[in-house]
Structures are given as C-alpha cells and as structure tokens.
Write a structure and sequence with these properties.
Structural class: alpha/beta
Shape: globular
Helix content: 25-40%
C-alpha cells in the first residue's frame, strides 16, 4: 500500500475546489528505490487546455503522466483528476490506495496513448477500437463497432477497419491506438511521446490527428520532443528537469524567453 500523505487534511482532497481544473498536482513525489524521480511536481491543467511537457530524458515526464492515471502510485503529495483522487480513497484524515478494480474503473475515464502501440495482434483495427467499450463499459457490440468505425474515419483509417496490426504501418498503428483511447469517451487524454517510435515520415500523420483532438477542445497532456507541435498546438508549455517543473507559460514565453538557466540550456540544446 502506498504511504501517501497520511497527514493530508480531508478538506484538501474534496471535489469542487475549482470546477475549471481537470488535473491538480500538488507536491507530487515518486521514487523508485533510492532514486527520486518526481521531487515535488506542482501543476494545474484546466478543462479544454492542451498542455505540452518537454524536458531532458530522465526528468520525470513520463512517470508523472503515468501517475495521473495511477499506472504508478505516488509516494506523497496530492493528485486530483476532475476534483477526485485516482487510485486512492479518503479514510478519515488519511488517503489510502484502492483496489485494482476500482482504480481501473477510474482509469477508464482517462485515455492514454503510449510510445508503443500496444494493439492486440489477433484483432483487427476495428476490434481493437471497440474492445474497451464492450468489455469495460458493457456497450453492445453493434453500437461499439459503429462508433469505432466513426473514430477510425476521424483518424483517416476507416478503410483499414478489417486489417490486422501486422499489416499496418507504425503511423497507422498509432492512429488506431488514438482511436481506441477516444472510444472510451475520456474526459482527459494523455500522450506519452506518441511519435518517438515512428519513422520520421510517419510522425506528421500522427501529429495531424493530435492537432485535431486539441482543436476539438479535449483536455490533453502531451509529453513530447516535437517542438513544432508544442509551439503550435499547446496552450501551455511546461519544462521539467530533475523531477520538478522548472518553467511554465505559453509556448512563446518558454521557448523564446525562458527565465531559468536550466530551461535555457535545454532549449539551446534542441535548437
């Protein structure tokens, strides 16, 4: 069981403190053995906002993303999604980790797209997209597949509905993975460097879909090395280093006029 903040007052974890905030992270810490990966992350993401996270490798970006939907537990601090804890429950003045089943139910409200596509190889593109609504939400197969086809159309792959993953390109596979995440009708989308495993010529097609999602008003957090996407599609740009948020502001502010030396070094290195 997590040793999460047993002294955190209950009133600080209740829903409704700010209905405009989708993700509220306060002093979030995470360690793996003796390694402190997150050392007090403070971050807010508002509804409808697209937030991009950049930073050097090992800065804790992906770990923080995995903590949001409780794929990783946190060791201390507070992390709310839509005003509620994910993976934890209030017990008097303490916060305790909940069962995997309950955590999975809350996680279904948060879509996540990984670096690897994680498609089921024995299922067609359409079957991959429709699986979650059928198994997790109890949706009937006909309606789930009908919506699945519409989502594949949205990502430009309706003609690949009956194709198995082994016959899809990397960019096509990642677009199917995005459609699969959207099929659960999430309130929040998380993207963990979704183009890092793609050949350069396939990156653009995935970024185009992500831009469409951003323009639709879906609240999104994107860990990325694609500075063009971060500059053009994000409302807010966060730079993480050494397990903390070093810089936060508009993409223009962070990329052209960083305030901190650590930020300047990183941005200079990627120019």
């Amino acid at each position: 069981m997590s040793q999460l903040g047993s002294d955190i007052p209950v009133e600080n974890t209740r829903e409704g403190s700010n209905n405009d905030v989708m993700v509220d992270a306060s002093d979030v810490c995470k360690r793996f053995g003796a390694l402190d990966v997150l050392r007090g992350v403070n971050l807010r993401v508002h509804r409808g906002e697209v937030l991009a996270i950049i930073g050097p490798s090992g800065s804790g970006k992906s770990t923080f993303l995995r903590c949001i939907n409780h794929l990783e537990s946190i060791d201390s601090g507070r992390l709310l999604v839509d005003g509620e804890l994910v993976g934890y429950r209030r017990d008097g003045s303490k916060i305790r980790e909940v069962s995997k089943k309950h955590s999975a139910h809350r996680r279904a409200e948060i879509g996540m797209v990984f670096q690897s596509f994680n498609l089921f190889p024995n299922m067609t593109a359409l079957e991959n997209v429709a699986l979650g609504p059928i198994r997790v939400k109890g949706e009937n197969r006909t309606s789930a597949q009908e919506r699945g086809r519409e989502l594949l159309r949205r990502v430009g792959l309706v003609d690949k509905s009956d194709v198995y993953p082994r016959k899809l390109s990397g960019g096509q596979s990642q677009r199917v993975a995005i459609a699969r995440a959207l099929a659960m009708e999430p309130k929040l989308m998380l993207f963990d460097e979704p183009t890092s495993a793609l050949d350069p010529e396939m990156v653009g097609e995935v970024l185009d879909v992500m831009r469409q999602i951003a323009e639709s008003g879906m609240t999104s957090i994107v860990v990325t090395h694609e500075m063009g996407f971060a500059r053009d599609a994000a409302d807010t740009l966060v730079l993480m280093a050494d397990g903390v948020v070093v810089e936060s502001g508009t993409p223009q502010e962070v990329l052209t006029n960083p305030r901190h030396e650590r930020s300047r070094r990183f941005i200079d290195s990627i120019r």
